[in-house]
Design a protein that fits this description.
Layout lengths: L9 E3 L2 E3 L6 E5 L7 H13 L4 E5 L3 H13 L4 E4 L4 H9 L4 E3 L8 H14 L3 E6 L5 H4 L5 H18 L5 E6 L3 H12 L7 E2 L7 H17 L5 E2 L7 H14 L8 E4 L10 H11 L8 E5 L5 H4 L5 E5 L3 E6 L2 E7 L3 H11 L2
Parallel strand pairs: 3-4, 3-10, 4-5, 5-6, 6-7, 7-8, 9-10, 11-12, 12-13
Antiparallel strand pairs: 1-2, 13-14, 14-15
Length: about 350
Amino acid sequence: MINRRKSKEISIGNVKIGNNNPISVQSMCNTDTRDINSTSRQIKELSDAGCELIRLAVLNKDAADAIKDLVKISPVPLIADIHFDYRLAIKCINNGISALRLNPGNIGKRENVEAVVKLAKQQKIPIRIGVNAGSLEKELQNKNISLAEKMVESAMGHIKILEDLDFDLIKVSLKSSDVITTTEAYQSIAKKIPYPLHIGLTEAGTLKGGLIKSSVGIGTLLAQGIGDTIRVSLTENPVEEVHAGYGILKCLNLRKKGINFISCPTCGRTQINLIPLAKQVEERFKNYDENITIAVMGCAVNGPGEASHADFGIAGGIGVGYIFKKGEIIAKVPEEELLNKLEEIIKSSK
């Protein structure tokens, strides 16, 4: 069992973060926030996939204006991503945003920071300090310390600005595209602050490479009890980030939302077209919200026994497949009918 780091509880809309609350899965729309129709469609797609927090880029006044309509239709809390212009943060708060991603040291004069923090405090709007390795302050870039230490120092500086204004609804992230740098930064800051941590790697890559890198980095931190929200950043449809996030959490028994899918590697005993079948089963049930294990195994000789812990599964034969439940074969089905029959059996067992 993983002993999670204790952190201050904050609320982003109706989602509680930190303390012993479930680790939340977050993603970010890649649409133009000003385009309310396309953005609202993507918000729904993300929500349907199980996304619990969605970040939106707010690049200008028109995007901040769009927030007012988007928060009305969104089934999950929205977070505004703000850089440099404090007026956009104020407009987003007034338009009903649930949280900000904003580095207070980057929005100019102290009175600008004070204006944002005062309103955020009144409305109980959390602020995520998001430090990226590639955009550190100039005075830190040439310091003779590791990149991870520079990231931590940057975050601590931004945190102090908020704390000096008596603001503590804070969440922190320190992201790099490098696994070791990222994990070292989070491990360090986890010992220094009480605030919840949003973990992930930035610019991790495309689906295949990015998932490997993110799984190693995020998984390492989660296994050490570090992390209160996660985002698996991928150069891909952001819905895939949500599926990946839950996959990582399920591997560590930190969340149980959705199916646990297992399948065997192919071997010389396999007499069914296993690879496409496994992909089809995984795709068919990817949005299934039941906490069950589904297995796809290559042969009827070892399959049901090796996957006897699975709630349901398929074992391959010659032109047919055997559907099993808890290791017991319950149906013999032609190969082309396997997927539909499996779904029928699972649904009828609810």
